[in-house]
Design a protein that fits this description.
Helix content is 1%, strand content 58%. The chain contains one helix and 20 strands. The longest helix is centred in the first third of the chain and has 5 residues. The chain is elongated and about 70 Å long. It starts with 30 loop residues before the first helix and ends with a strand.
Length: 401
């Protein structure tokens, strides 16, 4: 089963990975941010990539800037079955997560910016001969965001910003059975819209606080479905019928602070809250409104806490380290084996000229081992353990005009 994809200018931003954040949230928006575990992202504004976190930070730029980012996520997710022949290894594929940002000051008060990045993406792929593919199989949910923004400086201390987003989403879910063959095979895509706001308070040059909010958005996908249908028997599957799938991408609230304590040392911190309970189950319907697919995904709202430090070694070199604790969002399943995670990060910025700088960052993400039960179609309830770690490597170029 295949469908024609919607032609969209930023499909190159699609990312499919699983273990880099709780649920299937993507935080890899910049290499500079990765070095400090994305602490202080709504308050710092050291390059154009900060547009992904708080549009009010554009007010701090006095020159136009372009930032281009590429991140490589290398996960290691393994499933251990507590029954015979139920284990699986390397179920989450590696992924490249690109992003691009541009900020253009208009005058001393107004600025415009454009961000192209991804906030959500997940992917798990089990081997074709895995015994539990009626519940596991292949799962992909990926998004790409096209996000124009505008900011306004109210006074020397207070700035605000806002933006709108066109979000391209695509999802694929395939389940097979050794007895019935294709149980469910659905692939769809669509475009939905959202908005975001932010504010920045600068106590002085060395101390500032930021807040940002991305509103939830309804993901409405259209595609085709093949597999078992409630109106047919188990040995009489439908093939390539039109179908729809609806879910809600969660809202994201972030509070950040930044403090330059000496000429060479600064500390930053963030709290990020994601309303994962908005997502709900994965449900698909035919055009008559008959439910043809249901995958229960029990999500809960989650928080992410991060702290980072920056050492300004020379005028041209900045070094960073960071730590973050990422709470589990999803009740772990074979398709999304979620858990609490700890981030250990390091990075640097090298300023080559007054206009050109480069960032590099790396992170090790340690996932907590978790045990869960899952109902397997025609196989009863089985017990599994999952453990997922990941390495992330990120590079970034910033050019000021």
């Amino acid at each position: 089963m295949r469908i024609n994809k919607v032609a969209f200018a930023i499909t190159t931003l699609l990312a499919a990975s699983q273990v880099h954040a709780s649920g299937f949230q993507i935080n890899e928006h910049s290499a500079s941010g990765l070095g400090r575990a994305f602490a202080g992202e709504a308050a710092i504004g050291d390059d154009a990539a900060s547009l992904a976190r708080n549009p009010a930070l554009m007010a701090t730029f006095d020159r136009a800037q372009l930032s281009v980012v590429g991140s490589y996520v290398a996960p290691d997710v393994n499933i251990t079955g507590h029954n015979d022949n139920n284990s699986a290894s390397d179920v989450a594929p590696a992924a490249v997560v690109p992003a691009m940002y541009y900020i253009q000051p208009i005058n001393d008060e107004w600025a415009f910016g454009l961000a192209m990045y991804s906030n959500f993406g997940t992917g798990t792929e089990y081997a074709d001969d895995y015994v539990n593919n009626a519940a596991a199989g292949t799962t992909h949910i990926v998004t790409a965001t096209f996000n124009p923004n505008i900011s306004y400086r109210i006074n020397e201390q207070f700035s605000i910003g806002a933006g709108v987003s066109a979000i391209y989403s695509t999802a694929e879910l395939e389940r097979t059975s050794r007895i019935f063959g294709t149980v469910a095979d659905m692939e769809g895509d669509g475009i939905n819209f959202s908005w975001n706001i932010g504010a920045l308070y600068e106590v002085n040059e060395n101390n500032r606080f930021g807040i940002s909010y991305k509103h939830s958005s309804k993901m409405e996908l259209e595609g085709t479905y093949s597999g078992q249908h409630p109106d047919n028997g188990p040995f009489d599957p439908v093939k390539d019928i039109d179908g729809t799938m609806e879910n809600t991408l969660p809202a994201i609230l972030e509070l950040s602070g930044y403090h330059k304590l000496t000429n060479q040392f600064a500390v930053s911190y963030s709290w990020q809250y994601t309303t994962w309970s908005d997502f709900g189950d994965i449900l698909a319907y035919d055009l008559n409104g008959v439910e043809v697919l249901k995958k229960e995904e029990n999500f809960s709202n989650s928080s992410r806490y991060s702290i980072g430090t920056e050492y300004y070694a020379t005028e041209n070199l900045t070094l960073r380290v960071g730590y973050a604790y990422d709470e589990q969002a999803a009740e772990s399943t074979l398709s999304i084996p979620d858990s609490d995670r700890q981030w250990y990060t390091a990075g640097m910025t090298y300023k080559a000229t007054q206009s050109l700088s480069f960032d590099m960052g790396a992170a090790f993400i340690a996932g907590k081992e978790i045990t869960f039960d899952e109902d397997i179609p025609l196989g009863g309830t089985k017990t599994f353990s999952s453990k997922g770690d990941a390495w992330i490597y990120s590079a970034q170029m910033n050019y000021s005009f």
